[in-house]
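Input sequence (189 aa), recorded before submission:
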Amino acid sequence: MTVLLIVALLFLVVISAPYSAMAKDSEAVAPKESVTLFTGIERGKEVYEILKELAPDMKAKGGPQDWTRIEINMVQDGVKTDLVFNHDRNYYQGKSWQLERLGMYEYISKFPEAQHKQRALRLVQRFNFAVAAVLSPPRIKDDKRLKLILKLSERIKAIMFIPGSLMDCSGRIIISQDGFSDPQARVDL
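Predicted structure, token format:
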């Protein structure tokens, strides 16, 4: 009986340890949401200049030619919000870029058939530039950060990716994991 009780207690300790660790980790990390913008040609300098125009108070690590991070802080309805753009030339010019595009191709190929699916798959193969926009906290009602991302996307004619969807530069869904495809979506770079 004592051995059974010890085994049961050990089982509870082993089972509950990962959950308590997860709770501590999730409390320490603020929730975030990201949007990745892709284009067919390198547009790092353009992105920097457009963001400087749209958000003159931005804080950049690096200049127009070599920036790696741009941070834009806003207060919206009393809530402090951050929008961080991350740029790494080694990511899209490195040896693993082909694998990254192949991974996205494989991911989208599993979506149900839709109006733009085949064109979207061809489009992914033409991506040669990427910049990630990270929202912290995740989007809120009437979020100015999303409007800024859309303005940037339209100016550089980017394709946007969020988990589950590929969107054109105006935010129309080219294809989503539930099979939706907006007939008005622009499917080119």
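Checked by second reader. The two ends are 70 Å apart (CA to CA).
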